[in-house]
Design brief:
The protein is an all-alpha fold. Helix content is 59%, strand content 0%.
């Protein structure tokens, strides 16, 4: 028996292999990771460089955790906008 990982939505429903929703979660995570990078959060590296070689991995995982939690609702809003736009394009 293989267990499929699911990404919860704010309503607690699993992602259910919806590629559009997965992309919305990825976009939200990317935006959060960039906000973390620009804000300069984290511990400065001992060499004085602005980023250590692993800082981007940490930011990415933190951003994914926030995005997958569904607490901000941003991925859900992005998903709905993309879904509606795709529906309008299909109707044409």
């Amino acid at each position: 028996m293989q267990i499929e990982p699911t990404i919860p939505t704010p309503q607690g429903r699993p992602l259910a292999n919806d590629p559009l929703k997965a992309q919305a979660v990825e976009l939200e995570a990317f935006l959060f990771a960039e906000m973390l990078r620009v804000s300069g959060t984290g511990v400065p590296s001992p060499t004085g460089a602005s980023d250590s070689q692993f800082d981007s991995f940490l930011r990415r995982e933190q951003a994914l955790a926030v995005s997958r939690s569904g607490q901000t609702g941003l991925a859900e809003a992005i998903y709905r906008a993309l879904r509606d736009a795709a529906g309008e394009a299909a109707a044409r």
